[in-house]
Amino acid sequence: VQLVASGGGVVQPGGSLRLSCTASGFTFSDYTMSWYRQAPGLERELVASITSAGRTSVGRTTNYPTGRFTISRDNAKNTVYLQMNSLKPEDTAVYYCRASKLRDNYWGQGTQVTVSS
To answer: What is the pairing mode between strands 93-101 and 79-84?
Structure first.
C-alpha cells in the first residue's frame, strides 16, 4: 500500500495550492479519503474527507472562513485532491492524506505547505 502526496510548497498569503495524493495497493474507490494537517507543536487535525460515495465534509476550524478548502477524488486515477484557496499563514503545516475503510487505515508521507510573505 502506498499513498504519495504532492503539490505542497511555499505560497504567499491569499494564494492557492492544489494537493494531490495518489494511491496504490488497495481498491481506492472503496475507501474514504481524507486530508489532515499537523503544524509544529500541535495535534494532527482533520481538514476534509470524501467518502467512497462522494460525500464531502470539512473540518470546522481548518476551513474557516467556509469554502476555502475543497476535496475531490478521481477514482480512475486513484487520486484525491485538496484545493486550497485564500491561504493564511496559520495554514502552514504538513498535510497528510489518509485512506480508511472499517478497520483498514493507511497514511501517506505528508507534503509541506508554507504560507508566508
So the answer is: unpaired
User: What whole-number distance in Å separates Cα of residue 72 and Cα of residue 117?
Assistant: 28
DSSP 67: T
Tens of pLDDT, residue by residue over 87-112, are: 999 999 999 999 999 999 999 999 99
Q: Which residues contact 105 (CB under 8 A, 6 or more apart)?
A: 98, 99
For residue range 19-35, list pLDDT tens digits in order: 999 999 999 999 999 99
14, three cell numbers = 491569499
3-state helix vs strand vs coil in the chain, percent to 5: 5, 55, 40
Pairing of strands 69-74, 9-11: unpaired
User: If 0-12 CB within 10 Å is exposed, 13-18 middle and 19+ buried, where does residue 117 land?
Assistant: exposed
